[in-house]
TrEMBL record:
Signal peptide residue numbers: none
Top-level EC class as recorded in UniProt: oxidoreductase
Claim: Heme is one of the keywords in the record: yes
Cofactors required: heme
Record's keyword annotation contains Heme: yes
Pfam families, per database record: p450
EC number: 1.14.19.8
Family listed: Belongs to the cytochrome P450 family.
Native source organism of the sequence: Crossiella cryophila
MF (Gene Ontology): heme binding; iron ion binding; monooxygenase activity; oxidoreductase activity, acting on paired donors, with incorporation or reduction of molecular oxygen
Protein name: Pentalenolactone synthase
């Protein structure tokens, strides 16, 4: 099969709530298939759960590449459109990042944040209740909450939110590489300035921890800036998408929403089901083989790109019962929305705490909430890496 004959990303989908039918076709045929990325490069696409779980934990798959300029890329985004990090030091850098941030993002610390995050949700819902519906839930809740939380956690001035939103969205642009690089450069310059400020005036926040590690010689400034930039970017953009689609799923499945209202203990499993059902972060985890990997009848060669489709794995009928049914009462929900293994998303617990704070309050406060437009009129931000919605109009 030539590159031109391969299935080409991105795949079409009939509605924003469905996964692309092509993923289903490829998943039925075989677990791993060669595809053509948006950049015209070849990559392996993993669509079944077992193979995805295995490859997430395989140390031969990494995020960097020995020749990043010539590596296969999935988009024009300068943030995550291709290899990330330094090939020679990836293992060391990853271990350093985990040791540096492990305490900041520990489950214990995230649980301690629950009352504060719950209070932020209450404040945002209070303001929303003062407005005459319809309102845009993206502007009223989905965007401001993760930004407030990540600003407090990292030590980023909240008044800068509009500017770093512009830079973040620009860096996530999948179609305009020049614009993406310009905006990422601005975002890095901004986080670099915050590190310098914290070196002179440290606080009880993550950027102060990064600044302290730099002063102690544990990391260089380029790595420090990259780490802070990645945290600011991922810490709010992905969670915005999860709040939007979590709300949309519950508005689309009113019987599930009512179950959660009747039994508050279902909030936690409801959040896990939202995570399983939501295509956040661009749909694919991008990795590169640093050694030959044989899995089934497929041989992944050194340097080749591997795209692990979380949303396909999370709907694999070989692993899940009724995978396309949104069921907040699933007894086990081992989804792969945060990855798996040593590269499990460090902010996973924080995202869960934020989502549980939202969905233990939103529909209790607005039990008659409904979409203000037909779901077919909702628009995807399909030019940005994490996806999301242009707006989410609701009324009550």
């Amino acid at each position: 099969m030539t590159t031109q004959d391969m299935p080409a990303l991105p795949f079409d989908r009939p509605t924003i709530l469905d996964i692309p039918p092509m993923l289903r076709i490829l998943q039925a045929e075989r677990p791993i298939t060669k595809v053509r990325t948006m950049m015209g490069d070849e990559a392996w696409l993993v669509t079944r759960y077992d193979e995805a779980k295995y490859l997430f934990t395989d140390p031969r798959l990494i995020r960097s590449h020995p020749d990043p300029e010539n590596a296969a890329k999935v988009s024009e985004s300068a943030m995550m459109g291709g290899p990330v990090g330094t090939y020679e030091t990836e293992d060391y850098d990853h271990t350093l990042m985990r040791s540096l941030l492990g305490g900041s993002f520990s489950a214990k610390r995230m649980r301690m944040l629950r009352p504060r995050i719950g209070g932020l949700v209450d404040d945002l819902l209070d303001e929303m209740a003062k407005k005459t519906p319809p309102v845009d839930l993206h502007q009223e809740l989905a965007f401001p909450l993760p930004v407030l939380v990540i600003c407090e956690l990292l030590g980023v001035p909240y008044e800068d939110r509009e500017q770093f939103r512009i830079w973040s969205e620009g860096a996530a642009d999948m179609f305009n590489g020049e614009h993406s690089l310009e905006q990422l450069t601005e975002l890095r310059a901004y986080t670099g300035s915050l590190i310098e400020k914290r070196r002179k005036d440290p606080g009880e926040d993550v950027i102060s921890d990064i600044a302290r590690a730099y002063d102690e010689g544990k990391l260089n400034m380029d790595y420090a800036v990259g780490l802070a930039t990645g945290l600011l970017f991922a810490g709010h953009m992905t969670t915005v998408v999860l709040v939007e689609f979590g709300t949309l799923h519950l508005l689309t499945y009113p019987e599930q929403r009512q179950r959660m209202l009747d039994d508050p203990a279902l909030v936690e499993p409801a959040v896990e089901e939202m995570l399983r059902f939501t295509d956040a972060g661009g749909g694919n985890f991008v990795r590169y083989a640093r050694d030959e990997i044989k899995i089934g009848d497929v041989t992944i060669n050194f340097g080749e790109a591997v795209l692990i489709s979380g949303i396909a794995a999370n709907r694999d009928p070989r692993f899940w019962d009724d995978p396309d049914t949104f069921d907040i009462g699933r007894e086990t929900n081992s989804h792969l929305s945060f990855g798996s293994g040593r590269h499990l998303c460090i902010g996973a617990t924080l995202a869960r705490v934020e989502l549980e704070a939202v969905f233990s309050r939103l529909f209790q406060r607005f039990p008659t909430m409904r979409l203000a437009v037909p779901v077919e009129e909702l628009e995807l931000l399909d030019n940005l890496l994490p996806g999301g919605l242009v707006s989410l109009p609701v009324t009550w």
